[in-house]
């Protein structure tokens, strides 16, 4: 099965040619993958999770991977396959996820989220960018090299189904399959670049602690005229608690919240200050009337180097059309914090609890439910993998990649760091305006095709 | 059709006997009425509104009322009928509504809201107490007197279908039908008593101004990791605005909100202080851990004599199971104020707008939608109608009624005051623990049967 080392360059050139002539076929395949409504957080979609895992496994089988299997976890399964045909060469563990975010508000989608639709240069579908496009891109990169004479490295692929809910079963899975997953280099494709013409490599990811805060008042909903004025309205009390979590300068008020926040090195600060970024362009992209954030920090610091606390959802009382004069029995906020090194997700949960104990009035009851947590992570910028990724990006885009701290969270990166002792290379091709987790998620097709080429160059070069 | 004046006492006695022997039949009829899901705020229930209006009209026809009709309005229709057979005698306009509140949260109902179910001494159904029970009770009172020889007064009945949404079409309707509705005395049955053994008469109702406040941030939902930290989360901004509407003493902070609030007379303060009331019993009835309210006022003052501001609903972002890491594009709060004499609902809307203009940050946009408004009202305590009602209550319950200020709002009372120049007698038989507007609304059947008798005595005596 192996090929001669001398063939690698001609293999790579052949693979790139192959990719350039197969755009249409790739797009058709990706549309098939993106049409599977694999929403991990909604239990009604359980059969779709299985279908999506099988779709990934089928791809691996199709390119002669061995030991392809749908491996069970406590939650949604993991698709696994390996191509271990060049003994003595390094082994790369490639990570992706086949699950996607929910689609509501559905009425804001211009085309149905699971009927992938091309408009202009983009493919619109839930999961198109996060991250079925990236999964499909690395699969096509591997396939194009295998078809062109073989891979110069050994590869193991895992595609999991719970990233969008915080990968709650994956740590146990990685622990259980430590030997099967052993590797020299890890590639995490759940990532993006700055702009279509500015490639980048992520070296830090924020952690995530996600909670539901419930505030309870009366035992059941009451008539707001008959009882209003005599009770602390739980929706009001919830608003008071949430409002108090930031001060007037945008600082988070949880006791001790900033104690362990890592200060950037001078190099990093300088890199960050020189990244291509315009506050006004960023604002325009969001459509917000003004930017907002922690005082005394730049937008890029706020996005990557500083922790945040966001309200992800609010629900209380009557929310239908018109009027219902109810004094609600309860109110709920979904609240999540993005953590930075060296904050500890366990400590953060306690800090939130401390805040509530100190600030919740005796006129209501409250309950805090932890939905998921994940540690922040930093990866080394000068590993074999990172160097190969930087070279692959420069060759593909014609521009040197910049190193960035990403605001999002990818739980598996710290699991692989802890359990397998390997830092991940974060290489993927989402764009900031892809509407991740939002209506009208899209994938920029020219960037996706370039991404396939960049992955191909990475796999061709990372073996040395 | 008329009967001799001398027959009234024997007619009344006969009617009371009739009532006592027809409990089962009345209950069966009421169950039929309460089974109609006449939810006025939900457009899907439009056919049910027609059915409920027809049910009421059928009852009027069945007891030989004239000119019975379903009269159109801009919204849901009004059932009308008249019994004008004793010329020279006063005319009483009787008001009720056939519409009901929405039923959510549906899963908290022990029996389906439109499958009326008797458990113990109560009938459970949406609208059983508010106010199909009261409508049915005055219809049965009228019927029992007519069957027993005739009414000693003239009667006009209107049963409308929009009370639960603030009676938006009724003012124009009353204006248009001024002559048809002309009367000497008005009876409004949308009311209640303090306890099953403590009758009461309401002489003041709070007004209601109901709004939706929308806060907008980015143009669409964003990934909270990618964008979090750089934008003012609209759910957070909404919480900040709502939290600021009360100060630490429970006072409402809208500029000028208390300027016109009427101070109770010494008599009223003394009456209020002597009403049967226990803070601890009230708290227990609600199930809240503690009472709460405006500092320096008693619970009964807070409930009847002071204005309030309540959050009736909150909605933003992701509210399904589990985690979705979204920075929402918008957040909504339903906010309503209960107003007391002599606050003006138009001025209150402007005060809320002023508050938002002064306090909303430039980092978000906001919009205020008025859903409904209704003025507060005071009625005279010493009219013919009020005296007849007090006598009817005392005779039926064996206890003198107390005069109370009710926390709820009944828009039609001020319309009839303004348009027809008549103060309403507020006589009805709901109880504070009937779960009005809440899951498991119920009607206390012994009180309902007594209510029929009390209405009968009122109609028998109010003619003089």
- Give the beta-strand count of chain A: 18
Percentage beta strand of chain A = 15-25%
Oligomer category = homodimer
Alpha-carbon Rg of chain A, integer: 23 Å
Average pLDDT level of chain A:
94
CATH superfamily of the largest domain in chain A: Zn peptidases
Largest interface: A-B, 101 and 100 residues
Class by alpha and beta content of chain A = alpha+beta
Query: In CATH's first tier, which class of the largest domain in chain A applies?
Result: Alpha Beta
Structure description:
Two copies of one chain form a homodimer. Chain A has helices at residues 8-20, 23-34, 46-62, 128-147, 170-176, 224-227, 234-243, 266-274, 279-286, 299-305, 345-359, 384-397, 411-420, 445-461; strands at residues 66-71, 78-83, 91-97, 117-119, 122-124, 154-160, 185-188, 200-205, 207-216, 222-223, 308-317, 326-327, 330-339, 365-374, 377-378, 402-406, 424-426, 442-444. The two termini of chain A are 19 Å apart. Chain A folds into two domains: 5-205 and 376-461, Aminopeptidase (3-Layer(aba) Sandwich), CATH 3.40.630; 207-261 and 307-373, 2-Layer Sandwich (Alpha-Beta Plaits). In chain A, strands 1-2-6-3-7-17 form a six-stranded mixed beta sheet, with helices on both faces. Chain A has a four-stranded antiparallel beta sheet with strand order 11-13-9-14. Chain A is 35% helix and 21% strand. By secondary structure, chain A is α+β, with helices and mostly antiparallel strands. Chain A is globular and about 80 Å long. The interface between A and B is large, with 101 and 100 residues.
